[in-house]
From TrEMBL:
Molecular function terms from GO: DNA binding
CDD domains attached to this UniProt entry: HTH_XRE
Listed Pfam families: HTH_3
Originating organism: Sporomusa malonica
Keywords on record: DNA-binding
SUPFAM superfamilies noted in UniProt: lambda repressor-like DNA-binding domains
Classification lineage: Bacteria, Bacillati, Bacillota, Negativicutes, Selenomonadales
InterPro entries: Cro/C1-type_HTH, Lambda_DNA-bd_dom_sf
Record-annotated HTH cro/C1-type domain positions: 8-62
Protein name: Putative transcriptional regulator
Superkingdom, taxonomy of origin: Bacteria
Amino acid sequence: MGSVNNKLRYYRRIKDLTQDELGAALDVTRHTILAIEKRKYEPSIALALKIASFFGVPVEEMFFLEDGEEDDQCSD
């Protein structure tokens, strides 16, 4: 499977939130927010859903595969 990209920084800046503020709202550390934004950490499904819900966007809008990469589905 390809690497997951995200728009977390984009949406955080739209809401004018610091990494600390967003982390507190989501009950995670600033380091977790930083790691997700820098693509050093892929959040669990539960956290990804929580993040998307916080910003009011579909999870697939917030997190997505890199362009040109396809998932490992078989095509019979």
